[in-house]
Amino acid sequence: MDHASENLASSDAILARVQDIFRAELDDDALVVGLDTRQQDLKSWDSLAHIRLVSGIESEFDIQFSLTEIEQITTVKQFVDAIQAHC
Amino acid sequence: MSASSAKLPPHDLPWLPRPAGHLRDQLSALPGDPMQALASLQSLAQAGWGEAELRSIGRKVRGILKSAPANFGSEARAQGLVPIRLLILSASTASHIADALIGTAIRFRFLLEVVVAEYEEPEPWLDRNGAALKDNPPDLVLVASDSRMLKLASPLDDDAAAEQMIDAAIARISRIAEVAGRATARPVILQTLADDPDATRFNMDMGLPGTPRFLISDFNRRLARRARHDSRLVLDVNALANLVGLSAWSAGRYWYAAKYPFATAMVPLYADNIMRIIAAQMGRSRRVLVLDLDNTMWGGIVGDDGIEGLVLGSGSPLGEAHAALQRMALSLKQRGIILCVSSKNDETIALDAFRNHPEMILKEDDIVAFRVNWEDKAANIKAIADAIDLGLDSFVFLDDNPAERKRVRDALPSVAVPELPEDPSDWLMVIQAAGYFEQATFSREDQLRPGFYKANALRAAQMERIGNHDDYLRSLGMRLSIAPFDGPGRKRIAQLISKSNQFNLTTRRYSEAEITALQSDPDAITVQARLEDIFGDNGMISTVICRRDGQRCDVDSWIMSCRVLGRRVEEAILGHLVAQVRLLGVTEIIGRYIPTARNELVRDHYNRLGFAQIAAENGETVWRLAVDSYCEKDLPMTVDVRRVAEPA
């Protein structure tokens, strides 16, 4: 939690960690995501990958998303916003 | 965070050292050479990573294997990394555990490839893919059934209906196992069911037919018994869920969102259990527990505190905890685990405690080897391994001192050294949850094993006393009993064939079904051999499978337990084979040596037996013995041959 709260103000820092998780979970070391990246822009971001992303982000930030969040998140920005809301 | 300060839940694999640093950095710094990269990953994987990290490790392994050259498998094997393929049949989601399994497998020195059939009942999948499976069978099949697939339900308080429901479910799983086993001729792993924390459950429900509690517990017991009867392997998911707590195990949210059968945080524990079952099936489970003495076996330091000052047994909570550890060791001994002691101590003082402390549960006689001196513990463990002739990879070392643990881990990476919590009362859960000594089967030989090794120590003393090896062998009064494969011997034959790695000429594995088929195969010549001597019965210690083709006889498989190395048993068995094939008009016996990382021991086996080498390729050698040229040997044992198989 300490680690996460240090970065509370910085969505850039969160984005950097989220990008690492996207690279790992979507198995693409060169992937670059931005706040405006949408699920429909990335072919590899399918429904199973979505759950892997959720699980990876949950363990990285030590948080738990709600079922509604899991269902409604479709952009990187929504992930970052939800992380900030939980931290 | 210091390695042992926090008390970790079982699903965090608390027996493993905590990871140092960020996995991402370590993965990006892997060596470019694929073999070296795998070696680094294998050592990285020894830490207790979480689910996401295990997947990253698994993905890395997968990537390396995908781009590796064609002969990489045999190169990896030579480095002790064994490629295996696992087929997972699941009606839920299973692909999400594949990479974590691969990341876990390399901790066990397996290069795992996973084939997943998911979201589908296993029966139609097997129907469609049966032929492909026969052509390219996986090494094992996991039937990852869960309560959502089996849908156990019957009217409340109706015994007959509940019984019928469970009969049907057991029959269904058995059929799936049968079909999968037949298509692949490989071992099948079945799962028990976790209870459902979301189900209505009253305290009385275990006794009320038709309730989820009743149906699941009845199903589990019957599944496990049936599996033992049919020689299937069991992954006890119910026990895992109980260990971590049902509410932690099951996670409705993941089921609703993605059809995951249990919470993702449980994947490391689930994967570790699958791999330990596979390791046990492949003969790689651990067999030796080496215990430290001061502050491990007992509380206090015997050299300083004296026997009277030791904290052990009733009268002190700490003493009770140390006594519980001794009881655990004793119960492991009853499951065939060999107990040894390595301690920095004065040997006379330490032995005195064994002989004279009234609360000692372990007796001197329970310990196969003592190494009590002031030398380095790693050197002592190595000396024990040499003395009892077992590889370091079958050792577990228990020590309260983190510095000693680290030293042994660094010096002898193949020895398992569990992390232990600060408080001895927390140790047993961690050691038991680690499952180092997992066994895939149970035979009478297992229970006798510590006795075998103890007898070997007595034989070594006899050898030292007599000095001359031939005289020593003659002094043993050995009796070798030879018989063809039969029903009563089958379990132990299967165990030798599936587990032996060192004295194993071809490392060909056969299932119990294949072994049964050999009994009635007119062209198969099979041998099982038991050895007894004045120090006791060594049990069944050797199997040989030969195939006759006209005047030629090929030795397909020759296995011997390392317990009886240097006793000239292999010469006696060859004498028996020659006598037998002569009667069949065979003129030549052809033997083959296929090298692995672990059977260097028998590279010269056929040479020593008087065979002539006739071919060699990639380290594999082929040998020939002309039956006419064989001369009877004068051997230091009597040989009894039983020709007719007893009924099963």
Describe the structure.
The complex is a heterodimer of chains A (87) and B (648). Chain A has 87 residues and is mainly α. Chain A has one domain: ACP-like (Non-ribosomal Peptide Synthetase Peptidyl Carrier Protein, Chain A, Orthogonal Bundle). Chain A is built from five helices and no strands. Chain A has helices at residues 2-6, 11-25, 47-61, 67-72, 76-86. In chain A, helix 2 packs across helix 3 and helix 2 crosses helix 5. The longest helix of chain A is centred in the N-terminal third of the chain and has 15 residues, at 11-25. The radius of gyration of chain A is 12 Å and the shape is globular. The mean pLDDT of chain A is 87. Chain B has three domains: 83-281, Rossmann fold; 288-434, Rossmann fold, CATH 3.40.50; 466-641, Aminopeptidase (3-Layer(aba) Sandwich). Chain B has 25 helices and 17 strands. Helix content of chain B is 43%, strand content 17%. Mean pLDDT of chain B is 92; it is low at 1-5. In chain B, strand 13, helix 24 (569-583) and strand 14 form a beta-alpha-beta unit. The chains are: A mainly alpha (87), B alpha/beta (648). The A-B interface holds A 20-21, 24-25, 27, 47-48, 51-52, 54-56, 59-60, 67, 70-71 and B 24, 50-52, 55-56, 59, 93, 95-96, 253-254, 256-258, 260, 264-265.
- Computed over alpha carbons, the radius of gyration of chain A is 12 Å
Task: Write out the strand line-up for the largest beta sheet of chain B, numbering strands in chain order.
Answer: 15-16-14-13-12-11-10-17
C-alpha end-to-end distance of chain A? 7 Å
Number of helices of chain A: 5
- Strand content of the residues of chain A, in percent? under 5%
Q: pLDDT under 50 segments of chain B (min length 5)?
A: 1-5
Query: How would a textbook summarize the main sheet of chain A?
Result: none
Q: In the CATH hierarchy, what is the architecture of chain A at level 2?
A: Orthogonal Bundle
- Please tell me the overall pLDDT of chain A: 87
Main pleated-sheet profile of chain B: 8 strands, mixed
Cα shape of chain B: globular
- CATH names the topology of chain A as Non-ribosomal Peptide Synthetase Peptidyl Carrier Protein, Chain A
